[in-house]
Design a protein that fits this description.
The complex is a heterodimer of chains A (about 325) and B (about 500).
Chain A (H helix, E strand, L loop, with lengths): L1 H26 L5 E5 L6 H17 L3 E5 L6 H7 L8 E7 L1 H8 L10 E16 L7 H10 L5 E5 L4 H13 L4 E5 L1 H10 L5 E5 H6 L4 E6 L24 E8 L5 H16 L1 H9 L3 E5 L4 H18 L5
Parallel strand pairs in A: 1-2, 1-3, 5-6, 5-7
Antiparallel strand pairs in A: 3-9, 4-7, 4-8, 4-9, 4-10
Helix pairs in contact in A: 6-11
Chain B lengths: L2 H8 L2 H19 L5 H12 L4 H26 L8 H12 L3 H36 L2 H18 L4 H15 L2 E2 L6 E2 L13 H19 L16 H10 L1 H16 L5 H15 L11 H25 L5 H12 L6 H6 L1 H35 L2 H20 L2 H19 L4 H27 L3 H6 L2 H32 L1
Antiparallel strand pairs in B: 1-2
Helix pairs in contact in B: 1-16, 2-4, 2-16, 3-4, 3-14, 4-5, 4-6, 4-13, 4-16, 5-6, 5-13, 6-10, 6-11, 6-13, 6-16, 7-8, 7-12, 7-19, 7-21, 8-19, 9-17, 9-18, 9-19, 11-12, 11-13, 12-13, 17-18
The chains are: A alpha/beta (about 325), B mainly alpha (about 500).
């Protein structure tokens, strides 16, 4: 008898808890959400998160509170993500190819599969950038010059094993040329080197063309279709090179986060992406929106991992 | 609109209130070790969404300039550079405070900061577009040589103890290699530890190496922290003004150095302060006073580091290339507001840029009264608070400050270990500055060298890359001068004395 009472009490308790949990998730988010960027302030990961901030507040009534946990090229933040509370109020920015390439280089405290990415909301497409007064007018000019002078063309780019670097390696292979890649600390430093004529070109991003309009020229962009901000710049595909790549940015949650919150958050980020005003702002800055949600993430990651890993091997970044 | 119009637009009560509150908040933030200008500006971004771009810039610029000045307090009173910009302030500021002149040092720092800030902002106002090209003229090789020049300063800073200075610098260089390398993306010297993955963060190393030994000594010795004069002496403003007037050339030179170094995106306030300090020392007739409480040392550093504020805005606004880390955050905030930086910003959006620059000048002027008042309060509280209160409070602040730099517990662990290590090394006559210099300059030198080498090798002209560029050669000349001038001078002196003896 007592046993049954006890059992029914426990059942009731569980039911009550479940009810509370449903109610809580139904009202999610009911307090500000901490949005950790595993890089320093002022970079593109920060700027794109800052673009989301006001739209999130407008649509869902709560603040996204952005903070930074830089170090180890993002590794410090990602290695701590799963220790954070999985209640939906701690989320973190994730970047490709970083989270794929880094764990393969060395033990950096996290594995790609351990990060629960719930949305990829945009990417900054790779682009070949030259100074406005450069001798190179088209991508073909670069290929011709490189064929005659193997290794002589220098490209600046942000970091090693990064989107820029892997795009350079892939392009060299497809175009059967040899160029020299010089890694700089971040896109800012790499643009400075380009504008200062320290290098002959840059493996940069479409965002470089937007930010430094008038001083630089884009020769090709690594997109499926031309970027709306640069209708005159051809894609690599048009020119016969199958390269669609860039730095993808998304949002991950601690892997203890319940399924319903993941799904909800994923749809929320998607709703921000659907806002025409948000789209306009992002495209003006040279970004390109993508919509890879919670459901489609695994297929997307698998496909990207394959391309990145083979390029990284080619580049000698991983063994 | 003419410049008078822009000035009037900057002088609205709203902007004056923004500038004043920005400077006050910045000074307080900067004075707390670990809380940096970058962080203060980043926290403000959401607030600036709803503001006009010019107003947002004024607020962020005011906070920034206040924080750089505020870094002097901890440097002078606790021997802890609150920001890397204030490293060289400790060299003479702390000895001044030790002998009871802390109040004078703070007032001098305030005047020098205002001077430097004004010079930097005036350059920004008048010569920004042409000066921005300096940022582009500096390539990897120039940064490499600049870092080497910085390392030669160790010989000047560790008088009579060159060997220990060099050992310290090498230790610092090794520390700079720890973690994921910026350029090659290799993971180095972490010994498999997650703690070391993010490398040694400079500000936490500063707090550890400078502040912890002071705290340990405070506990280990019965003396008071700083010498106290019983009678209240006010701000000692007249005395400070007299000294400042006497060293007007030092202030002017340091301000110009600060502006120029501020323009270089890869350098920053710490190098500006160090270069200005060593130039002040070199041109002084009483070099031996430096490091023992020479007011010129404090003035040079503080003028230079506040001049980097205006200097750093030059490439930020003209080229869209942030001159300093806080500038990167400000640039991001502007982007989100839809303001495009670039040369047209000055011609087409004068109402933003010029109103902001006048606002920055206004904030710098307001820093004089605000800085003097806060400085006096900071001085009195540090001097009069009993040790039993001071030590735990400061210790607590160092922990919080270190954690907040990157929201990282690892940094706190590293800071504490470096602190104890710094104290032990200090007992053997190794000072913290060469270690910190090695740490800061090591990564700059490494990046510049590797990039310069790759570019030179691609062009088949390594020699020309490192020794064939005019700016490089200029810096190399400075390096030789800085390395060999003490040797030559002492030989000259010896000869003269010998001649006199004959």
């Amino acid at each position: 008898m007592i046993h049954t009472i006890k059992r029914s009490f426990v059942t009731a308790l569980i039911a009550a808890l479940a009810a509370v949990a449903t109610v809580a998730s139904a009202e999610y988010p009911e307090k500000p959400i901490s949005y950790v960027i595993p890089f320093g302030p002022g970079g593109e990961s920060d700027i794109t998160a800052r673009h989301q901030q006001p739209f999130f507040k407008k649509k869902f009534g709560q603040d996204l509170v952005i903070s930074y946990k830089p170090g180890g090229g993002g590794a410090v933040g990602w290695s701590q993500l799963n220790d954070m509370p999985g209640d939906g109020y701690s989320i973190m920015g994730v970047n490709l190819p970083h989270i794929i390439v880094k764990p393969l280089q060395k033990d950096v405290g996290f594995k790609t599969d351990e990060l629960a990415t719930i949305y990829m909301f945009h990417y900054t497409p790779d682009a070949v950038v030259v100074a406005a007064d450069s001798q190179f007018k088209t991508l073909q000019d670069i290929i011709d010059h490189a064929k005659n002078n193997p290794g002589k063309i220098t490209f600046s780019g942000s970091g090693k094993g990064t989107a820029n670097h892997l795009a350079q390696v892939t392009f060299d292979k497809l175009a059967e040329i040899k160029t020299t890649y010089v890694a700089f600390k971040g896109t800012g430093a790499s643009v400075t080197a380009l504008l200062g004529n320290q290098v002959m070109g840059q493996w940069g991003y479409t965002s470089v063309g937007a930010k430094h309009a008038g001083k630089v020229r884009l020769l090709a962009v690594a997109m499926e279709q031309r970027h709306p901000r640069f209708p005159d710049v051809p894609t690599f595909k048009e020119l016969g090179f199958d390269i669609v790549s860039g730095a993808y940015r998304g949002i991950a949650v601690p892997n203890s986060t319940p399924e319903d919150i993941r799904a909800k958050l994923s749809s929320m980020i998607g709703q921000i992406n659907d806002d025409p005003d948000f789209k306009q702002k992002m495209e003006n800055d040279g970004f390109a929106l993508v919509n890879v949600d919670h459901q489609g993430m695994k297929a997307f990651m698998d496909e990207k991992a394959q391309a990145y890993v083979s390029a990284a091997k080619e580049a000698g970044v991983i063994k | 609109m003419n410049s008078l119009g822009y000035l009037l637009a900057a002088l609205t009560p709203y902007h004056i209130a923004l500038a004043l509150s920005g400077v006050v908040a910045g000074t307080v933030v900067g004075s707390l070790p670990g809380l940096t200008a970058t962080m203060a500006v980043a926290v403000l971004i959401p607030i600036t969404f709803s503001m006009e771009p010019a107003s947002a810039l004024i607020l962020m610029g005011a906070i920034y300039t206040g924080a750089i000045y505020g870094g002097a307090y901890a440097a002078i009173l606790l021997n802890t550079p609150g920001t890397p910009s204030a490293i060289a302030t400790t060299f003479d500021g702390y000895p001044m405070a030790k002998r009871g002149d802390g109040d004078l040092a703070i007032t001098l720092a305030c005047i020098a900061s205002v001077c430097g800030g004004l010079v930097g902002a005036l350059f920004l106002l008048s010569l920004a577009p042409p000066l921005a090209n300096v940022a582009l003229a500096f390539g990897p090789v120039e940064y490499f040589w600049l870092a080497i020049l910085g390392l030669t300063l160790i010989s000047a800073l560790s008088q009579g103890n060159l060997l220990k200075g060099m050992i310290g610098a090498c230790f610092g260089l090794l520390l700079s290699c720890i973690g994921v390398a910026e350029i090659s993306a290799d993971v180095r010297l972490t010994f498999g530890s997650q703690t070391l993955l993010g490398g040694i963060e400079v500000v936490s190393a500063l707090i550890g190496l400078y502040c912890i030994p002071v705290l340990i000594d405070l506990v280990a010795t019965p003396d008071r922290h700083l010498k106290v004069e019983e009678a209240s002496r006010g701000f000692r403003l007249q005395e400070a003004l007299r000294i400042s007037l006497r060293s007007k050339f030092n202030l002017a030179r340091s301000s110009v150095i600060g502006t120029l170094v501020g323009i270089l995106p890869g350098a920053g306030g710490s190098i500006a302060g160090l270069v200005a300090y060593s130039e002040a020392r070199r041109s002084s007739k009483q070099q031996e006073r430096f490091g023992r409480g020479a007011s010129e040392g404090v003035q040079a550093t503080e003028a230079a580091n506040n001049a980097t504020v205006g200097g750093g805005f030059i490439p930020t606004l003209v080229l869209g290339i942030p001159g300093t880390p806080p500038d990167a955050v400000i640039l991001g905030a502007l982007l989100i507001q839809g303001v495009r930086t670039g040369p047209n910003l000055f011609t087409e959006h004068g109402s933003i840029v010029y109103v902001f620059i006048w606002g920055l000048l206004l904030a710098t002027v307001l820093m004089l009264p605000a800085g003097l008042l806060i400085g006096r309060y900071a001085y009195r509280s540090i001097v009069t608070v009993p040790k039993a209160m001071l030590v735990p409070t400061v210790a607590f602040m160092t922990l919080i400050g270190t954690y907040s730099i990157r929201n990282s517990v690892s940094d706190v662990v590293i800071m504490t270990i470096l602190g104890v290590l710094g104290w032990i090394l200090g007992r053997f006559g190794f000072s913290a500055s060469p270690i910190v210099l090695g740490l800061i300059l090591g990564s700059i030198a490494e990046q510049g060298f590797v990039q310069g080498w790759i570019i030179g090798a691609a062009a088949d002209d390594l020699w020309g890359q490192f020794f064939g560029r005019p700016i490089s050669l200029g810096i190399v000349a400075f390096i030789l001068l800085s390395l060999f001038s003490p040797l030559l001078l002492s030989r000259l002196r010896l000869k003269r004395e010998l001649a006199r003896a004959d």
